[in-house]
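Complex record, three chains
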Amino acid sequence: MYNVLEAENLCKSYLNKRALRGANLTIQQGRILGLLGPNGSGKTTFLKIAAGILHPSSGKLLIDGQEPGVYTKSIVSYLPDTEYLFKWMKIKDAVQYFKDFYSDFDEKKAFALLEFMKLDANSSVKSLSKGMKEKLKLTLVLSRKAKLYILDEPLGGVDPTAREKILDAIINNFSENSSMIITTHLVNDIERIFDEVAFISDGEIVLQGNAEELRLNKNKSIDELYREVFQ
Amino acid sequence: MFHLIKYELRGKLLTILGICLTVIIGNLFLMTKVDSWQIGAPVLSGFLGGGALVVICIASLTLMSDYLYDDQGYLLFTLPQSGVSIMASRLITAVIQISIVLIVSVSMFCLLDQGRLLNAILQQVEIRELLYFILMHLWTIVSTLTFMYFCMVVGRIALKGKKVGKIGSFIIFFLLSIARTGLSVAIANLFPQMVQIHSVTTMTMNVGSMIFDIVTFGILFMATSYLLEHKVDL
Amino acid sequence: MELEFDDKMPIYLQIMDRIKMDIATEKLKANDKLPSVREMATILKVNPNTLQRAYQELERLGIVYTQRGMGTFVGERKHMIDDLKQEMAKEVIDSFILRMKRLGFSEEEIIASISKNITEVNKHV
């Protein structure tokens, strides 16, 4: 099967610390991978390299066979863990922005998703609560027909009802032609949507495998496994 | 690239409007005082216009630093846009917004002194010279900003932290400015050929330093574009 | 379909068990259409690939069949219901016996306790 993402011996060092020390990871087409690890384990660093906004110190990462750049950005839909929308924007401006810049953006889908998330296209981005902002970001990101979706903590700081909605939206809008990486530390809420999981600790992938096989072989839930690895 | 410019201008809309309104209202006020203040009114109008230009130039610098240091960078740098188009859109936006403020300030000034200065200038200036002024206006904005953007990007990449990066950028700017001026002067001495701009007055331009400026601009533009695309880490 | 998952066990096995159970108890009858993979994935909040796998396994076992472009249907093999009941009964009994033995009951004691409790359970059902 075809690998949408391949990372080989990926390293990223800063002056005073090494965020990634030789991470190896592959994701096949049509799969959802959970990248699990505590804060500071290198999750976000990895995702930022894949999104093309951080550059590795050594090793390589290929998306659809290419190094991160203009092409990969056009096929990667990235949900960052930051509030990156312009403050002057209304929700409909944000939708228009994505439509203007991404040729794979599906406006109809975006408005359907906004309705599903109970967001009003005329409210301004500034006025939204944290949960609503997260829903808006997810709407924008999922309305693209990307080859690879990268979701950094999509459930972070969101109340349980919003979590349900976000999970539903992810499952409904996932297609077998695309792949997804999701990071989280709320493993319990989301483990059933992973095909594969990779545990990242201290900048290294310490365990990667099929979620069902891991359950079968270890007789544990992914959540329990996570707690065991990261005690 | 067109879209990049559109959203840039939209983002700075309030700043541009605010500056223009201030200039217009300030000049309207000065117009009521033209008789009592005599020469003071046009002088103040000139200061007002100058101040407006300084503010909009600073706003043009934040076009870059907002993306380098704030979360908005996540929006810009994940777009499938090359470094060249990001850089070019930044410069075009800056030219447009500075020109808007300049045109508003100059028009208000002309209204204030009832076109006297404008007439005086137009009588002496040749079309060739006028074109030269306009070109120089655009060129100054573009080359200066490119130089400053380059320093900002280098500071951002070389130094960690917002404060350190910004101060570092300023120091880099300072040092490079000295180096650039020194080189430019040396070249002008080495190649003293001049081009006469005006047929009567002695307005001239050194060919050597002009070529030097164009070449440095080209190098800095490409270097900044490359750094934006391949080296900036958010 | 409501389903509480035990995340310690493979999800696809649990989904298979649930469908088998529904067929055995005739909630699902021969030639009934199962929900599409995507519908089911949304309802259960499970990865669509996991459901795909559950359906494929059921098909391999001859319990369901797929019609191109139509969907997945409950099979109409003879004795399927009885077979499923037998199979599931065996699973329940096997694990029951195993656990009783672990508790230290002898075979006679196990049979005796069943006879004793079956009347009590009957009262409640």
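Note: Chain B has a mean pLDDT of 85.
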